Amino acid sequence: MKLIAVGDNVVDCYLDQQTYYPGGNCVNVAVNAKKNGAESAAYIGIFGTDDKAEHIQYALKEEAVDFRFSRTAEGLSGQPQVSLTDEGDRVFVGGPKNTVQHKLKLQLVPEELEYISEFDLCHVSCYSSMESELPKLSNVVNVSFDFSNRLEIDYVKSIAPHINYAFFSAADLANDELDGFIEQVKAFNFEVFAMTRGSLPAVFVCNGERIEQKLNPIQVVDTMGAGDSLIGGFLVNYINGESPEAALEKATKSAETTCGIYGGFGYPKSF
C-alpha cells in the first residue's frame, strides 16, 4: 500500500514545556502510514522558511516520508500553541495567523498529479484548503478526507462526490445525535466513514456495516495526534486487505503507541 498526504504541516508548540513538535494532520497521517507498514509514504505541502519548517523536514526525512514535490514560501510555519488544562488535557490556545499556509493555497499541476496517481490513496484534511483541488485528485487516485469537527452536512455534501474514506471528530455529539449524523452520512455512500469520540470508542461504518472500536486500558502521556495515527493505521491495514475489524484493531494499537509519547510522533525541539 502506498499513501500520499497533501496539505497541512505545523509544529505544535507546548507552552508548558517550551518545546515544539512536528505535526499537522497530513504530516501525521503520512508518518503513521509508514509506521504501519505502507510500502511508501509521501507528503506535499507548503513549508515556510523558518527553523520550524527545517525541523519538520528533518523529521520527515528520518521517517522516510518523501516530500520532494512540496513548495517553500517565504514566511512563517504554522505553529499552534498548546496549553495544558487542570484536568491534564491539551487544548489549542492560538498561534500566528500570518503563516504561509494562511497566505497561500496549493494548486496541483499535471506533473504532480501524475506522481500522485502512482499511490493507492491520497489523504487530505479540512485544514489543507484543498477543497477546490479535490476534483483533480479524485480523477487520478482514491481520496481520504479528515473533516475534523466540520460536521455540517452541507459541507460534507459539497465534497462527498470526490471522497472514498471520510473521518470525523464527533466527541461533542450525544449518542442520539451521533446516530442521526451516521444516518445522514450514509447517504453519501462512502466506502468507509468513521467518527472518533475522544475517550469513547470510535465508530466506523464500512460498506454500511457499523463497527465499534474496542479500547484497551493504557497509560496516556499525550493524546496529540492519536486520531491521525488511528487514521493512518486503519487505511494502510484496510487497503492491504485486512478485514475492517482487524484493520481497526491494528489502528487502535497505533493510536495507543502515539498516546505514549509527546507530540504527534515525537521529535521535540526547544523554543
TrEMBL record:
Domain Carbohydrate kinase PfkB: 12-260
Database matches in PROSITE patterns: PFKB_KINASES_2
Gene Ontology MF term list: kinase activity
Pfam families attached to this UniProt entry: PfkB
Keywords: Kinase, Transferase
Name of the protein: Fructoselysine 6-kinase
Protein family per UniProt: Belongs to the carbohydrate kinase PfkB family.
